[in-house]
Amino acid sequence: MVTIDPPTERRCERCGRVETWDEGTDAWVAVERDGDVLRGNPHCVHVWNITGSYNPIGNTS
């Protein structure tokens, strides 16, 4: 059986914005660490650290 294992966190390689997947809203949201929201640069064209080497397809057999 094949399962899909999507990423749950991503980070912009340009500005440092960090987001996690929020199941409740079905959307990516900025992470808060030590009281700071890691929004990065709002004008950045984000380059996420999820690359072609990431394989979301898993095998559970």
In short:
This protein has 61 residues and is mostly beta strands.
Describe the protein's architecture and organization.
There is one protein chain. With 61 residues, the protein is mainly β. It has one domain (2-59). Helices cover 0% and strands 36% of the residues. The chain contains no helices and 7 strands. The strands form 3 sheets. A 3-stranded antiparallel beta sheet has the order 2-3-4, with no helix packed on it. The protein has a two-stranded antiparallel ribbon with strand order 1-7. Strands 5-6 form a two-stranded antiparallel sheet. It is globular. It starts with a strand and ends with a strand. The mean pLDDT is 85.
Helical content, roughly? under 10%
How many structural domains? 1
Shape: globular
Poorly predicted sequence stretches spanning 5 or more consecutive residues: none
Structural class: mainly beta
Distance between the termini: 6 Å
Tally of DSSP β-strands = 7
Average pLDDT, to the nearest integer? 85
Number of helices: 0
Radius of gyration computed on alpha carbons: 14 Å
| Strands in their spatial order, largest beta sheet | 2-3-4
N-to-C series of helices and strands: EEEEEEE
- Largest sheet entry: 3 strands, antiparallel
Report the portion of residues in β strands. 35-45%
